[in-house]
Amino acid sequence: MEHKPIPHVLIFPFPAQGHINSMLKLAELLCLSGLHVTFLNTEFIHLRLHRFADVETRFGIFPGFRFETISDGLPADHSRSFNSISDLIHSVKTFIEPTFRKLLIPDRLKSEDRPPVTCIIADGVLSFTIDVAEAIEVPCILWRTPSACYFWSTFFISEMIAAGELPFNDDEMDKAITSVPGMENFLRSRDLPSFCRAKELNDPGLQLILTETINSTRATAHILNTFEDLEGPILSQLRAYIPKLYTLGPLHALLNSRRKIASQPPTSSNSLLEIDRSCMTWLDQQPSKSVVYFSFGSVVFMSHAQMIEFWYGLVNSGKRFLWVLRPDSIPVKTSDFQVPEELKLATKERGYIVDWSPQEEVLVHPAVGGFFTHSGWNSTLESMVAGLPMVCWPQFADQPINSRYVSEVWKIGFDMKDTCDRSIVAKLIRDMMDDKREELVVSVNRIAEQASKCVSEGGTSNRNLDLLIEDIKAMS
């Protein structure tokens, strides 16, 4: 019988925390399935992973895995934050794209101990990888880090423009959006992805998403970090545009399920920031379901005034809280301005603040009862799996539409977008933790059960992973 070579998959994420986190999980799933995997990082990202995460140790057990790096062309002292997203996009177009081409053409990362690349899995906003894949005659699968509802909405930018729904003015934020099929009854201007707030149609961000969405339909297939029971109605419509679509979510839960089978450790870190684990000791000392976990992820920023409003809201809610306050999340250091003494005292009594936390572990801790979140898709899925209701303060990309679904479709939390007032913060926290908790918990527990079934043996996400592996082997 002819021996078939092991497929060699190249995974290439956009250089940002949420993208890196989910695509490293995908890489581990492919490694557990016995494939050769090369994970391509920018040098800046890889240095941070090496410094703050355990990726070298974790992936060291897989002989078929290796990291490769390329430069992003930015200065060493560049922040590479989403405050400078235009710089990141520019570096992708002018430096990363040609460097990627040179790396893959003509030898496709072939080495003595592994075959050339037989499949590319690239971030959904890096559609230039499709051209490279065609040039070396291998399939290109795009990995979509956001929700299906976000992805679906991007297909109708032209329809929204034709209907006069884009662009919109600041006084039209609550105007109904009727051009996105399946969302006509609840979508408003303010719920659209953040780039849709552009005042001019030639805005670079708006044009980028429009172009990337159109280009993405040329990919061999797409992978989404979602599950059929959660976004089934949208997925059924999306497949008219993307016939070959694998749903593998919630990805962190699917990975944990496969780790159990392989007798691998259940948790790991893909963090680009230093984790402060002292918060876990603090949580161990708190009563069950008594703590509000407050985190806006790795890219959301706030003003000093907004920070004070949130702080007062947390304190005035009367609840215990664990607050992840990144050092770079506000324009100036906290030491550069005065914090009211009453906030310091209240925090000392029933709060805890860290720069960064092991979020997946925090959310499943028995002491945590709710999540005040930016509605990033990774965070939203992690909260669902943990069975936690949410209060949402979205800012960027898919976050506004995710938060609308949380409140109006899935009914597992409250949407506080475009508002930052201490009284509203306090009220919604009390609603989440006390007054309306029962109905929220019923809904989120149902979704948690559905997620668990999807990633378990026989579940749709579990089966889709097996199908993806089989297809990668067949395509190779």
Secondary-structure blueprint:
Blueprint: E1 8-12, H1 17-32, E2 36-42, H2 43-52, H3 55-59, E3 65-70, H4 85-104, E4 119-123, H5 128-136, E5 140-144, H6 148-154, H7 157-162, H8 204-216, E6 221-224, H9 228-238, E7 245-247, H10 251-262, H11 278-284, E8 291-295, H12 304-316, E9 320-324, H13 341-350, E10 351-354, H14 359-363, E11 368-373, H15 377-386, E12 390-392, H16 399-409, E13 413-415, H17 422-435, H18 437-455, H19 460-475
Helix pairs in contact: 1-10, 4-5, 6-9, 10-18, 12-17
Descriptive notes:
- This protein has 476 residues and is α/β, with parallel strands linked by helices.
- The protein folds into two domains: 8-149 and 197-269 and 454-475, Glycogen Phosphorylase B (Rossmann fold, 3-Layer(aba) Sandwich), CATH 3.40.50.2000; 277-434, Glycogen Phosphorylase B (Rossmann fold, 3-Layer(aba) Sandwich).
- The protein is 45% helix and 13% strand.
- It has helices spanning 17-32, 43-52, 55-59, 85-104, 128-136, 148-154, 157-162, 204-216, 228-238, 251-262, 278-284, 304-316, 341-350, 359-363, 377-386, 399-409, 422-435, 437-455, 460-475, and strands at 8-12, 36-42, 65-70, 119-123, 140-144, 221-224, 245-247, 291-295, 320-324, 351-354, 368-373, 390-392, 413-415.
- Strands 3-2-1-4-5-6-7 form a seven-stranded parallel sheet.
- The protein starts with 7 loop residues before the first strand and ends with a helix.
- The mean pLDDT is 92.
